[in-house]
Amino acid sequence: MNIQIRKDLGIILLVSIFGCNNSPETVNENESMSNPLLSEWSGPYEGVPAFDEMKVELVKPAIRKGMELHLAEIDKIAGNPEEPSFENTIVPMEEAGKELERAFVYYGIYSSNISSPEFREVQKELAPEISEFYSKISQNTELFKRIKTVYENAQEDSLPAPEQRTIELIYEEFAMQGANLNEEDKERYAAINKELSELYTRFSNNVLADEENYVIYLEEDQLGGLPESYIKSAAKAAADRGKDGKYAVTNTRSSMDPFLTYSTERDLREKVWKNYYSRGDNNDEFDNNEIISKILKLRDERVELLGYDNYAQWRLQNRMAKNPENAMDLMMKVWPAALARVEEEVADMQKIADAEGANITIKPWDYRFYAEKVRKEKYDLDSEEVKQYLELGNLTQALFFTAGELFNFNFTPVEEGTVPVFHEDVKVWEVTDKDSGEIIGLWYLDPYARQGKRSGAWATTYRAYTKLEGEKPVLASNNSNFIEPAPGEPVLVSWDDAETFFHEFGHALHFLSANVKYPTLNGGVRDYTEFQSQLLERWLYTDQVINQFLRHHETNEVIPDALVKKIKKASTFNQGFATTEFLASAIMDMKYHTTDPENIDPDKFEKETLKELNMPEEIVMRHRTPHFGHVFSGEGYAAGYYGYLWADVLTSDAAEAFADAPGGFYDKELAHKLVKYLFAPRNAMDPAEAYKKFRGRDAKIDALMRDRGFPVPENN
């Protein structure tokens, strides 16, 4: 999931979080302002990014000039001799930095979608400079005095709701970033950010290096059990790397997961598993353990300057959880049930292995393989059979149908060449209101894995909606890592991948449906913003989507009712594995950020903590520490990975509201409330208040436990 750039922050978050260095060097005015990465967007839809003019060598001068221009705007605001007011301080702050915002759109594409060794050198050089730039804003004494005056005046005499929420969020963010510190502590705070920025960049580039460097090439006689679609994709992946006649298992989840599920070659499963889960942990130049230790110490020192006991305490103060104790309490309510379910799952798998005479004890690289056998035995459900009805084009149409029913959006393909794209794989759709025909925005889709593209799936915006900035069309994107098929072959995905596709589209709908006045209100609360996306996954299970879009890629026949019933019946299958691998990562994240980091050795700390938690030997954390990019390539999810579970409590509770509604998941009245309270406000409304307006009460954990087939805790 991608983190939005917030121009009101002292720290900027992209794939990595940036720190500080020397002042941005002055660049030739004429040369910089002719830089297409800085230029105001032109073309249709009130301007679109000039992706066809991107060049790596343009990035550095664009970012540097953008920072220079933004700082000039900030200095003008800070030096305004008039009495501070919302209109002469906050509004110009919200309007500032447009050139830099545009430059960062291209920077984000290079760092996430089309990275290269040349760009990584640029990234390393720019990261500390960017951090210093943001420190100059967050620690600008005169600017903060004006913000504080507006904030204190608003506490005595409230402003209209959008303005009140905006000034409160801005003041809170500046205070969290050290604006109230003395000059000496501000200097140290900025220096810490500088060092962190460099570490975050190194961390993420190390993981990417291990993903690119560890590729396993198979021979014809090593393909046992693998589906034909996987074999063809693996052949193409090998050919793309100059290995014609071989089959490549790349070191990404999209390649690893199906290989471990289907390959009958146990020794190869072990090798693929070890490659994937050892990313950043190979005791070589790309090892991340020392970097992690430094990150933890610097984070702890930084929040100590602000008077907090630990990083998690600082991080969670403005989240729904409020403090690490509440987050841990939720996780530990679910953890025992997850462990109990894992024990049952492993017993079922071991029984099958024994019956087959395998003479093995289930290991982590066996879990997916034997879980698939259990699935077939218990539910007569073959994942490969299901995939035949999950073709990417049909699933894309299912997304559009869902958006039309709930949001009244219509999606129309944009003719190729009308809108520039950064890679030939990227397709673009125009989004309009179904009734009025009004243009809402554009939706970009970058579906396939490639070298230089970070793994996983995420959503981002190139331009967000705000009334202050003229209500221009939203430019939203989704990015996946489906394995590109051989020419003429369909893209068939797993049920889990189909859910993820819906999930990320939920983020795009959140961007497209925004109805806010100020850019700051387009932000979000991390343990809340995943909720809307997780909720959208539920529409994949609805009859309307199933009957129209889940069709066999060859015969076009709708997925049989019997198979759908098996899928729904098996919906709680393997929840022990799914919940435990996620919670292990989330609990470790919280432990790292509530423990004195002085003597933490990451590898040792991970092993000892998981042992104390009674982590099953057959499962590993979803994201082991050395490649836990959510937490160590930036700060978006640091001490916040639990947020997926927190959001899932809301998701399950809200899903039951739809299930109980007269019109079910397509109930018009509830859909209206969904958009009005949960999507359109973004961060213009307190999340807890917004959920209550939708549901009529706070969320309860009961629905989550029912969803996962776990016992509901008593006295909840």
Describe this structure in words.
With 716 residues, the protein is α+β, with helices and mostly antiparallel strands. It folds into 4 domains: 29-208, Neurolysin, domain 3, CATH 1.10.1370; 214-277, no CATH class; 324-382 and 573-707, Neurolysin, domain 3 (Orthogonal Bundle), CATH 1.10.1370.10; 392-543, Collagenase (Catalytic Domain) (3-Layer(aba) Sandwich). The protein has 28 helices and 7 strands. It has helices spanning 29-33, 56-78, 86-95, 98-112, 117-138, 141-156, 161-176, 183-213, 228-240, 253-262, 266-277, 289-305, 311-316, 324-355, 367-379, 383-387, 392-407, 495-512, 526-536, 543-549, 561-569, 575-592, 602-612, 629-632, 643-660, 668-679, 687-695, 702-707, and strands at 216-218, 247-249, 409-413, 427-433, 439-448, 458-463, 474-482. The strands form 2 sheets. A 5-stranded mixed beta sheet has the order 3-4-5-7-6. A two-stranded antiparallel sheet has the order 1-2. A hairpin with a 5-residue loop joins β4 (427-433) and β5. α14 (324-355) packs antiparallel against α22 (575-592).
